[in-house]
Amino acid sequence: MASDGVKSPYLRGVIDGLPFLAVVIPFALLFGVVSREAGLTIIESLSFSVVVIAGASQFTALQLMSDNAPTFVALASALAVNLRMAMYSAAMTPHLGHLPVWKRALVSYFLVDQTYALGALEFERRSMGLSEKFAYFMGTVTPICLPWYAATLLGAWAGAAIPTDTGLDFAVPVAFLAMIGPMLRTPAHIAAAFVAASMSLAFAWLPYNLGLITGGIVGMIAGARVELLMERRAAKTDPETAT
Fold first, then answer.
1. Angle subtended at Cα 196 by Cα 187 and Cα 23, rounded to the nearest 5 degrees
2. What angle do CA 56, 176, 84 make, to 5 degrees?
3. What does the alpha-carbon distance between residue 79 and residue 182 come to, in Å, rounded to a whole number?
4. Residues 172, 85: Cα–Cα separation, whole Å
């Protein structure tokens, strides 16, 4: 990795997070533009990004709000999209769970797809102390989360001056493919991704984006089942457990 020769954990995090600017900025710009077209003010658009700080769920909720979907459906859909954050949190707990409360609060707030992906890979490949892990994590936050606010504000301010058909939405699939690809390391991961995608497409006809909720739930169940089966198979073939 480009940051391997850097001693400072914070600077390594900054360097590793820089490539994500290529997708974070267009994604946030697009949200700012779309939110203005949906009737939100500049302050409301910025507040949306500051409070939620989760692009996929923001677009989901905004689309449903524009379609006059019931409030509970918009909230449930956004929550379903963000359920992956709970898994991210569980995965980060062994690494950052012993931090002081205020630092854990910062981590939980800034724990998004990109910061999780970078942190998970770095913590697995490098032996680091607790303070070093926190410094690296906050380093990834700097080029990923902070520009999200600025680009949202710029997109909302520009409003209709930036056409929504300029192709800025390429950032959505590119960002998720870049993050998901390296993380599909086990049969459970692959099964969860495949089933979730298949079910989301199969139930795309459901109103209010409920197919996404269905796909996410079924995908998590499939991944958990495959992981359980793999653990049972490993236990049977382990000589120590066999005796």
1. 95
2. 60
3. 25
4. 17
- If we measure between CA atoms, which residue out of 145, 161, 175, 176 comes closest to residue 32? 161
For residues 56, 58, 60, 64, the Cα torsion angle rounded to the nearest 10 degrees is 180
pLDDT tens by residue, 29-54: 888 888 887 788 899 999 999 998 88
Instruction: Give the separation between CA 230 and CA 71, rounded to whole angstroms.
Output: 40
Cβ–Cβ under 8 Å, residues 118 and 148: no
pLDDT for 166 equals: 61
Q: How many CB atoms lie within 10 A of CB 144?
A: 25
- For residue 151, the 8-state DSSP code is H
Query: How far is Cα 94 from Cα 71, in angstroms, rounded to an integer?
Result: 36
Encode 37-74: b = buried (16+ Cβ within 10 Å), e = exposed. eeebebeebbebbeeebbbbbbbbbbbbbeeebeeebb
Contact (Cβ atoms closer than 8 angstroms) between residue 220 and residue 228: no
Q: How many CB atoms lie within 10 A of CB 241?
A: 9
Q: Which residues of the chain have pLDDT under 50?
A: 242-243
Q: What is the pTM of this model?
A: 0.72
Distances (CA, A) of 80 to 77, 196, 218: 5, 12, 12
Q: What is the pLDDT of residue 170?
A: 59
Q: What is the pLDDT of residue 174?
A: 62
Residues 44 and 35 sit within 8 Å (Cβ to Cβ): yes
Instruction: State the Cα torsion 23-29-34-37 to the nearest 10°.
Output: -170
DSSP letter for 69, please: -
